[in-house]
Amino acid sequence: MENINKKRNKAGRITAWLVTWDWMGDHAKRENKIVTVLSRRLSPERVSQILEVIYGNEYYNLEERIAFAKNRKLNPYPANYDDIGGVSWTGRILCGHNPFLVARLVDNLYVTRDAEGIEHLTWEERKKPRHSLTCYDARNYGKKKKRPAGSPPAPI
Do the domain assignments include residue 154? Predict the structure, then answer.
C-alpha cells in the first residue's frame, strides 16, 4: 500500500473521474452511492463507454447486453455530456434514467477511515464553467462588426 501512496501528492490526494449513483425520489435510492474511480487520463468518450457498460450490467438482461454490444445505438439510455446553456460540457457525464450514473472530474480525492475502520471518500467538486455568451454572441464570436452606413471609420 505504501507504493500506491508514493505516486500521489504529499497529502495522498488525486484528481480522477468519480462515478456515483444519483436519483430523484427515495424509491430509486441506492445503498452505496460510490460506484468507481477512474483515471483522470481517460477521455470523456471512454468514460461514456464505461458508464454505459456499468449501467447496462446493472439494469439490462443478457439479451439486451448482447444487442448493445453489437450496436451501441440500440442503448435506450446512452451516456450524455452535461449541458451549459445549450453547449456540451465534457467535464460531467450522465447515463441512465432513475437512478442514473454521474461521472465527473474531481480534485483532492482521498480516503479516510473512521474509528471502526470504515472507509470514507472525500473530494472537491470542480466548478461548472460559466456560459457567458448568448447564442447570437457565440455565432458571431470573433467576427468583425459591421458599421452602419455613413458612420465614421473606426479609430486606429
Answer: no
